[in-house]
Design a protein that fits this description.
The complex is a heterodimer. Chain A is mainly alpha-helical. Helix content of chain A is 72%, strand content 0%. The longest helix of chain A is centred in the N-terminal third of the chain and has 30 residues, at 2-31. Chain A starts with a helix and ends in a 9-residue tail after the last helix. Chain B is α+β, with helices and mostly antiparallel strands. Chain B has one domain: Dimeric alpha+beta barrel (Alpha-Beta Plaits). Helices cover 30% and strands 38% of the residues of chain B. Chain B contains three helices and six strands. Chain B has a four-stranded antiparallel sheet. In chain B, strands 3-4 form a two-stranded antiparallel ribbon. Chain B is flat. The chains are: A mainly alpha, B alpha+beta. The interface between A and B is small, with 11 and 12 residues.
């Protein structure tokens, strides 16, 4: 019968989207084991796929799934205990009964459990890559396939990374708890950095042919929104969410119809999402002005994004203000990548010679980084030094691994070379 | 969970320390031990003699060879260890913060 069976699948699909991450957090809260909770919940969903079309959809799909998963997890714990012959069966049974007696309220305690899950996935004892993968798997509920695609690695590689990470969580004794109050700020910084790593994974892919993998950015924003909802008014979270919201508001204008990358000045500003810009500005406005550290870093980046977002036309951009913000950001971070971005702002504010001066000595600090020759090429072109600019574009093309960015650089090299009668050099 | 706490430090730091410094570090070990007893248990804890006293033994079949010195030459040497029984990794990290400035490796103990 297609009718009821079709309904069951729709309900299941929705249950997966709405409840998977919450149910998983509840199960981990009960059993303290990621792998056990994950397997048990997968089996519960599999059981639902088998039985709901025949037996009908339960009144509360989430409660049904949780009960089924909990039963399976208990069976597994029992089986393991028997296999190890460490605990007498009676103890396990008593424990099982105690667990079963503690009915879990699907609606209650969930925020707490999900927050614990996020802090567990982003524990500093894990590697940065492992943190991001765990958070996407267990907080956002993405599949291994989806996470592998976001990070541009083989599915088997990502599966192995997740397995290793889960093993580390269990074996190292990483607790499923909220950090103590005196550690909260440090731990929140780690979580924020993980979220921003996920976000930038979508925005600056090192390889691949898709210039902006927006789904990764959207997942990062979702993570930050979950965090902001659970632990409201944290400066680092507000600043990060504001920054990401503003940057993400331009996503539709960043990609041309032919799939090419559209840079900020040429973007059709009517395609920016105005409501998102408003909400990004609002988030930044809620960051306390005396903020410091990572929160300040995100706040300054957010204010730069806000300057761009608030300019009605590219010509209206307040470049002096942006150059000043970049100088503050560079003083705070000491980052050569920030210096590079600052040079671009100084170009618009103060001209190409002042900007070129800022690039002096950056080769040592940014070796093999295609953006450095790419930016230098644009500065040289603006200074009227076309032959040097073309050579610098080609140096950038050599180093760049993103197809869309490479096309853009080739186009620019041809334009700049064409203006002076210099043809583009053959490139491999 | 049981967790081994390995303490690494350049041995010359201890050897060249003043008596007052050594006393201060011992005081920090005492504070660590006190806190560890409050939040868990200390199953074992020992200071090791310097690596110059170490003997490395390798067996290949019936052949046993002895070498003077530690298994690996490193800039910082294993100078002591504890074995703790604590609720989780975070508690262990909290506790080792009370110790003198060592490089500390935390290794969970496998239970069979």
């Amino acid at each position: 019968m297609p009718g009821p069976s079709g309904d069951a699948h729709v309900v299941l699909e929705r249950a997966w989207q709405d409840h998977w991450a919450r149910l998983l957090a509840l199960l981990v809260g009960r059993f303290r084991r990621l792998d056990l909770a994950e397997d048990a919940l997968a089996e519960a969903f599999a059981a639902a796929v088998r039985t709901w079309p025949h037996d009908g959809i339960p009144d509360s799909p989430a409660a049904w799934l949780l009960t089924a998963a909990r039963r399976r997890a208990l069976d597994q714990v029992r089986a393991e205990a028997i296999a190890r012959r460490r605990e007498p069966l009676m103890v396990v049974d008593a424990e099982a009964r105690a667990h079963a007696a503690q009915a879990i309220d699907v609606g209650g305690h969930v925020p707490d459990e999900r927050l614990r899950m996020l802090f567990t996935c982003c524990h500093p004892a894990l590697s940065a890559d492992a943190r991001a993968a765990l958070a996407l798997r267990f907080v956002n509920g993405l599949s291994v396939t989806e996470i592998a695609r976001l990070f541009l690695v083989q599915e088997s590689t990502m599966a192995a990374r997740l397995t290793r990470a889960k093993k580390k969580v269990a074996a190292a004794g990483i607790p499923f708890t909220l950090p103590a109050a005196d550690r909260l700020a440090d731990r929140l910084d780690v979580v924020a950095a993980v979220i921003y790593l996920v976000f930038t994974a979508g925005y600056a892919p090192a390889t691949g042919d898709d210039p902006v993998r927006t789904s990764s950015a959207a997942e990062a924003i979702r993570l930050a929104q979950v965090l902001d909802g659970l632990l409201p008014n944290q400066p680092v979270v507000l600043a990060l969410l504001g920054l990401m919201t503003l940057q993400h508001s331009r996503r539709d204008a960043r990609v041309a119809d032919d799939g090419g990358l559209v840079l900020l000045p040429e973007q059709d500003r009517s395609r920016w999402h105005a409501s998102e810009i408003r909400s990004g500005l609002d988030l930044l406005g809620r960051v306390p002005p005396d903020t410091s550290g990572l929160a300040l870093e995100y706040l300054l980046q957010g204010r730069i994004a806000a300057e761009h977002a608030s300019a009605a036309r590219a010509a209206d951009t307040r470049w002096h203000r942006i150059a000043t913000l970049y100088a503050e950001l560079e003083a705070l971070t000491g980052s050569p990548v920030v210096r590079l971005a600052r040079a671009v702002a100084v170009l618009e504010d103060d001209g190409p010679e002042a900007a070129l001066a800022l690039l002096a000595g950056l080769e040592d600090r940014l070796p093999h980084h295609h953006r450095l020759p790419a930016v230098r090429a644009e500065l040289l072109a603006r200074a009227g030094r076309a032959p040097e600019a073309v050579a610098s574009f080609h140096a950038a093309i050599e180093l760049c691994s993103n197809a869309a960015e490479r096309d853009h650089l080739r186009r620019r090299a041809a334009e700049v070379g064409g203006q002076t009668g210099l043809g583009p050099e053959p490139s491999g | 969970m049981k967790i081994a706490v390995f303490l690494y430090q350049d041995e010359s730091i201890w050897a060249n320390a003043t008596e007052a410094e050594q006393e201060q570090w011992m005081g920090e070990h005492d504070a660590f031990s006190e806190a560890a007893r409050q939040r868990g248990k200390i199953i074992a804890g020992e200071a090791l003699a310097t690596v110059s006293t170490a003997t490395t033994v390798r067996r290949h079949g019936d052949q046993v060879s002895l070498t003077d010195g530690p298994f690996a030459e490193t800039a910082e040497q294993l100078g002591g260890f504890y074995v703790l029984d604590v609720p989780d990794l975070d508690v262990a990290v909290d506790l080792v913060k009370l110790l003198p400035e060592y490089t500390v490796e935390l290794r969970p103990i496998t239970e069979y």
